[in-house]
């Protein structure tokens, strides 16, 4: 009799637990808070990918999307606002990853799940962290540049490279920076100057690069830029200075502008990391956490269970195969007609027909 009662109690507990999880998920509010407008990726890829996966997993859930425009104070206000609106899970790509620690702790103190997205939050243990491997990104783009300079038989000697990093308040930028240092270490090309770009602003990267062009001139044989926006700022600086050809410049994010610069020969590489993949994974995690599950982690970063996706290096040599020919959800990552608008002749040279 005691065993029967115990089994009955266990079954009832399981049933009530499932009902509670279902109630927690049904009509739940989930917030997706992004950091800035410096890259077009958040509106074009991240949010649509997150919203689409949430719709599949939880049609009755409400998704709130807000962008902080590079303002940490504004993001704090947005964070507080979604809590007031009843958010049960928050996906946070922090403007200031140090300041975000207090936000994570505040939310968790109210039983709200927090997923650190793209940028880790070193001073707080979020419920999960999901991103592409940022340190690997830095290492890959820098090593690729070094290999290209050697292929071009560029002498080391007095020549060197500029290094344009991301925002000093972004822990992911710090990881990319660490990777760049590692990628450049064995190349033999010295770093002439290095800059941390506030808010990842392309205009600030351009202004700094312009000063370095005046300072170092022909000694600059390449630029390691941490993303396509800062790389684009460097391209603009060289063009404004009348430098032709523009030396090899790296990037990251595979934005349409960055890919077009590669097609045009103005940028050497970028990193393809379809944001929809990480955004979809963030939605999976949010739903799992709301159900009371413990998603498996592939690694741990800053004591936080994490999943890091592997990025793909893109140059002119593989752009068509990786960006146009490969499909994501049945569609090319970038449509040829979109990529080649205004760059039709350059596209044809790469075998891309718009």
Describe what this molecule looks like in 3D.
The protein is of the alpha/beta class. The chain has 2 domains: 2-132 and 275-309, Rossmann fold (3-Layer(aba) Sandwich), CATH 3.40.50.2300; 134-273 and 312-349, Response regulator (Rossmann fold), CATH 3.40.50.2300. Helix content is 47%, strand content 19%. It has a 7-stranded mixed beta sheet, sandwiched between helices. A 3-stranded parallel beta sheet has the order 7-6-8, sandwiched between helices. Strands 9-12 form a two-stranded antiparallel ribbon. Helix 5 (134-151) packs parallel to helix 6. It is globular and about 60 Å long. The model is unreliable at 1-22 (pLDDT under 50).
The helical percent reads 40-55%
Poorly predicted parts: 1-22
Report the structural category. alpha/beta
CATH fold call of the largest domain: Rossmann fold
Question: What proportion of the residues form beta strands (DSSP E)?
Answer: 15-25%
Physical arrangement of strands within the biggest beta sheet: 2-1-3-4-5-11-10
CATH class (first level) name of the largest domain = Alpha Beta
Main location: other
Organism: Deinococcus marmoris
Subcellular location: Cell envelope
Signal peptide: 1-22
Could you write a compact summary of the structure shown?
The protein has helices at 2-25, 41-57, 72-84, 100-109, 134-151, 171-185, 202-216, 228-240, 256-264, 275-290, 319-325, 336-339, 344-349; strands at 29-34, 62-67, 87-92, 113-117, 128-132, 160-165, 190-196, 220-225, 270-272, 299-301, 304-309, 312-314, 327-328, 331-332. With 354 residues, it is an alpha/beta fold.
């Amino acid at each position: 009799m005691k065993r029967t009662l115990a089994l009955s109690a266990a079954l009832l507990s399981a049933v009530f637990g499932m009902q509670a999880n279902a109630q927690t998920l049904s009509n739940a509010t989930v917030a997706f808070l992004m950091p800035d407008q410096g890259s077009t990726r958040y509106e074009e890829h991240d949010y649509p990918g997150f919203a689409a996966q949430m719709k599949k997993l939880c049609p009755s859930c409400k998704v709130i999307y807000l962008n902080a425009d590079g303002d940490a104070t504004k993001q704090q206000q947005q964070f507080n606002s979604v809590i007031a609106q009843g958010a049960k899970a928050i996906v946070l790509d922090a403007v200031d990853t140090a300041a975000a620690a207090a936000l994570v702790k505040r939310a968790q103190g109210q039983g709200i799940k927090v997923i650190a997205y793209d940028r880790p939050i070193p001073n707080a243990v979020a419920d999960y962290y999901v991103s592409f491997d940022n340190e690997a990104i830095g290492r890959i783009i820098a090593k690729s540049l070094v290999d290209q300079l050697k292929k071009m038989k560029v002498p080391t000697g007095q020549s060197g490279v500029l290094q344009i990093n991301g925002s000093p308040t972004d822990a992911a930028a710090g990881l990319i920076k660490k990777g760049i240092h590692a990628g450049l270490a064995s190349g033999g090309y010295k770093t002439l100057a290095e800059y941390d770009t506030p808010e990842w602003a392309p205009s600030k990267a351009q202004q700094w690069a312009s000063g370095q062009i005046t300072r170092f001139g022909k000694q600059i044989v390449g630029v390691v830029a941490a993303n396509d926006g800062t790389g684009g700022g460097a391209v603009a600086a060289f063009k404004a200075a009348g430098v032709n050809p523009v030396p090899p410049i790296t990037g990251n994010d595979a934005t349409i502008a960055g890919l077009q610069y590669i097609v045009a020969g103005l940028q050497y590489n970028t990193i393809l990391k379809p944001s929809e993949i990480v955004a979809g994974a963030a939605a999976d995690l949010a739903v799992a956490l709301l159900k009371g599950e413990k998603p498996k982690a592939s690694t741990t970063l800053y004591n936080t269970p994490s999943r890091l996706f592997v990025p793909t290096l893109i140059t002119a040599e593989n752009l068509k195969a990786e960006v146009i020919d490969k499909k994501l959800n049945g569609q090319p990552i970038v449509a040829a007609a979109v990529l080649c608008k205004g760059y039709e002749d350059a596209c044809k040279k790469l075998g891309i027909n718009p």
